[in-house]
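# step 3/5: fold
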Amino acid sequence: MEYGFPSGTPPGVVDKLSKDIGRVLAGPNLRDWITKHGGEPMSMTQPEFARFVLRESESAARLINAVGIKPQKNP
């Protein structure tokens, strides 16, 4: 499960939501549920999350290029 906030979200709103979501993710019930369903619970700051998304996108692009996947053309 990933979450992010739209560009332009006021910093105070981002801070509050990040803290609230982090608090919920810190509880054992949700962490156990996420793990049970194949997820890896992580808590990140907004800049950490941005770097994570960038790294994952770059990794996926390298994989796509390595195996030669091409975009499909719409009919």
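# step 4/5: annotate
The chain is about 65% helix and 0% strand.
# step 5/5: archive (pending)
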